[in-house]
Structure formats: structure tokens, C-alpha cells
Protein: Indole-3-glycerol phosphate synthase
Organism: Halomicrobium zhouii
Amino acid sequence: MNSSEGEIAPAVRSILDAARERGGAEGRVSVDAQSLPGAFEAAEADGRVPVVAEVKPTSPTTDGERTDDPVELAEQMVAGGAAALSVLTEPDHFGGSPETLERVRAAVDVPVLRKDFVLHEEQLDVVESDVVLLIVRFLHEENTDDLADLLEAARERGFQVLVETHTAAEVEEAIDAGAEIIGVNNRDLGELEVDLGTFEDVAPSVPENVTLIAESGIATPDDVARMRAAGADALLVGSAIMGVSGSKVTGGSSDERSESDGGDVTENTRELTTTETT
Ligand SMILES: O=C(O)c1ccccc1NCC(=O)[C@H](O)[C@H](O)COP(=O)(O)O
């Protein structure tokens, strides 16, 4: 069953439960954000594929953990041509932290997305970033804030917002709520399987004036070309750049890298940002 219609994976339920426990922060952040669409345009003008490279030390679908200094990893991603970065701040399942994001954002000159599972307005105030993530499916859960309210609350603080979807119906919800940057996640939160066909199916429902990001399961230049041909303005890539192997991947070429030993993060990034896409 598709996660947008029913059950979500036990690992995802655990992520949600932990997100509820974490609560928020006192006080209210005020962010001076760098433009994410502007960074994508700058990358294009420079001949690079716009890639948001993700500092993701571990996850429920990856084997092992990268324990390198996240700031060094982030700098290597920028050196490899990343237009922007995504930094996990979720501690319990992804090995992230707000402090990591603060350190990375202070060290690089590209926009930084806070990758976490924000359910309530006060959770926006935990740490400053250029972009925050709101996941439509998670905000269907009981005792979570409304998507449109959270979007407005985030913008009032100066954040840009990446609204993550998995189906055309979720895209419609995101548009109705006022989203200007939409991600289509190839990872199904029900089975945690990745299928690049998801982006191809959902992308046509996203209006032209929206900045559209293909998320998850992108591992090779062929995958990049496939997502760009399907309309992606940019790509969000974690595991392949971190050099950790993902499991349960279908419909893409990720199986080809299952033996990866981590590799050089700069080279991993460059391989995807220098792909010819026209
Ligand atoms: O990455 C996971 O294992 C995961 C599990 C459960 C919920 C969310 C998960 N990932 C969040 C993401 O959106 C990805 O980290 C991101 O799109 C990058 O994906 P990938 O390139 O496949 O690492």
C-alpha cells in the first residue's frame, strides 16, 4: 500500500514518535536566508547540474555510519560543485544535530537546508537555516500543525520552505498551501523502497513556476539525466555522495554502488554535478 493512503514503515513511525518527543525551542529565530532558487540558477549559469548534497551520517536504509567531521564533508561537497547543502539535524535515526548544521552553515557560502521532521511551529526555532523541510505526509498525522500554517510561520521567520511530496494529490495540497519549492521524494515512506519512476509520474502535476526538486535514490549520472529529463530543476542526493550503500532500492541504478567503500566525497559530488543533461 502506498504510504500516502495508509500505513507507514515502523522505522518511519519511530522517526515520527521521536520528532514528537523532541519539542521545540523558546524564543523565535529570525533568518537572513540565501536564495535556494538563486543558487540553482547560479549553478546552471556555471554549467553545473544543481545538486543539493546531503550530510547524512546514517539513516534507517543505509548500512553503517560515516563518522567524518560533517564540516569537512560539507566543504568537500561544495568543492565538488554542490549548489546547496542539506544537513540532517535529526539525532536518533540519522546521526544529525542542530549544532552540526550551525557549524556547516558558518563554514560554507551556499544555502543550507535543515533536514528534519518538523511537526509543530516551535520546532522551527531550534536552529537557523536558509531552508526548512515540511513533509506533507507527516503533517497528515494527528496532533501536528497544519501545512499552510507551518509554511506561513516558517516564512515569517525568514526561512524558505521545501515542501516534500510523494504523490500528485500531495502536490495539489502543497500548491494549495502556497508552496513555491516542491520536492518529490522517490522514497516511499510506507515500504522505504526507492523508485525513480515516482518522480517521473508526479512531476507533470507540478506547475512550471514552482522550483522542483527530485529527492532520493539518485546515484549515477544516468539517474541525474533521467530526473532532469523528467523536469527536475535540482536533485537532492544523500547516500551516493556520502558513499554509503542504500538498501531496498528499485527502479534506479543504485544497486551498482552497493559495494561502495565511501569514496571521495568531492569526486562523488563532481560525478553528479558535471553530468551532461541536455
Ligand atoms: O534516508 C532514509 O533512509 C530515510 C528513511 C526514512 C525516512 C526518510 C529517509 N530519508 C530522508 C530523505 O529524504 C533522504 O535523506 C534524501 O532524499 C536523500 O536520499 P538518498 O540520496 O537516497 O540518500
